[in-house]
Design a protein that fits this description.
With about 350 residues, the chain is α+β, with helices and mostly antiparallel strands. It has three domains: about 70 residues, no CATH class; about 120 residues; about 150 residues, Adenine-n6-DNA-methyltransferase TaqI, Chain A, domain 2 (Alpha-Beta Complex). The protein has nine helices and twelve strands. β10 and β11 form a beta hairpin. α3 packs across α5 and α3 runs antiparallel to α8. The relative contact order is 0.14.
Length: about 350
């Protein structure tokens, strides 16, 4: 009754409801499955029309005003059987698309491992300098401080930067060059979730000047020693994950590292041109994977919308389920998927 509204059939054993749920019990000869399908579209419409500053609320009066088509019990059963059958066919493809998307997302580790495979290692501090950022203390800002954009821990994600909200911080004019980020800096957070610790995001220099928080490390590769994108891929490899997980300090669910540990991280070493070649191979493989992930997600969304449309057509009688053939439904499924079914592994 609160939040996002939905209807589901309960096929399990005895259970209790909390105050945020409402039970509908069939008092006539209606097929419960048909009623379930018939209520989905009206509830979506109510959900879209309801506005609330905190939590949306669905009242009992809202439910009493809902209506379902008055088909004969026999037709209700046939419609429900049809929708059960077609819904399962659609869901099989949706699940396959979701599995493919998850599998492709995990391929990033394999791509990173291939990028660093067979290379000797040396400590990070041997190929890059490690910089700490500004300690935020506006109360002690100097009188001549200037406000500059400020990259926080919240902006640094695992492998990417979220720059939707960039705050500003007062910094003395002479400190701006000291703390300003440079294009090619590899940014890593001091602490966070263990599986994301040590994951690097590259700074492209879109905002200038931009300083960074003291809980963020800026790794600045020496031009003659390391390619920034290569180091970024190295942070995603199995060896890097093992190192940061093994050396992390843990407090409850938060893991952290420090500048010394980061400096000792064994990074793969190769001539600059070889690093660039490996980056090109990795980026190409990851672009293909991301395209496939996008295709799988688009397919899943398209089929979910098709299922909702099919339910509406069958419930309202726009689609005569007693006459439609299996071949016609196959054609409709392929049309809804825009012929992308073959792109998703079974």
């Amino acid at each position: 009754m609160d939040g996002e509204f939905a209807v589901r059939r309960w096929d399990e054993g005895p259970a209790l409801l909390n105050q945020r749920m409402c039970r509908l019990r069939n008092r006539g000869r209606n097929d419960v499955r048909f009623v379930d399908y018939a209520l989905r579209a009206p509830l979506r419409e109510i959900n879209e029309l309801k506005h609330a500053t905190t939590v949306k609320h669905l009242s009992a009066g809202d439910l009493r005003r809902l209506s379902v088509p008055e088909w004969t019990p026999n037709l209700q059963v046939r419609i429900a059987d049809f929708l059960d059958r077609e819904g399962e066919r659609i869901q099989l493809v949706v699940r396959a698309a979701e599995r493919a998307s998850a599998s492709l997302a995990r391929s990033e580790r394999a791509i990173a491992d291939a990028a660093v495979h067979g290379l000797p290692c040396l400590p990070l501090k041997g190929v890059a300098t490690i910089h700490s950022g500004v300690t935020l203390n506006e109360a002690k800002a100097p009188a001549d401080a200037v406000r500059v954009p400020y990259l926080r821990v919240a902006n640094v994600k695992a492998g990417w930067l979220d720059v939707e909200e960039i705050k500003e911080v007062p910094v003395s004019p002479e400190d701006v060059p000291r703390y300003a980020l440079k294009p090619g800096d590899l940014l890593l957070t001091e602490g966070g979730d263990l599986d994301k610790l040590g994951r690097g995001a590259l700074w492209a220099g879109d905002i200038s000047p931009c300083v960074f928080q003291n809980h963020v490390f800026a790794v600045r590769p020496r031009r003659d020693a390391a390619v920034p994108a290569f180091l970024s891929w190295a942070t995603r490899s199995s060896n890097a994950r093992s190192y940061f997980e093994a050396t992390a300090s843990r407090i409850t669910n938060i893991a952290s590292t420090n500048r010394s540990k980061l400096g000792r991280w064994p990074v793969p070493d190769a001539p600059i041109e070889e690093q660039r070649r490996r980056v090109a191979v990795a980026e190409s493989a990851w672009q293909r994977a991301q395209h496939a992930i996008s295709t799988a997600q688009e397919l899943s969304a398209a089929l979910t919308a098709y299922r909702d449309s099919l339910i509406h057509e069958a419930v309202t009688g726009k689609l005569d389920v007693t006459k439609v053939s299996e071949r016609q439904m196959d054609e409709r499924l392929h049309a809804a998927a825009e012929d992308r079914l073959d792109e998703v592994p079974a």
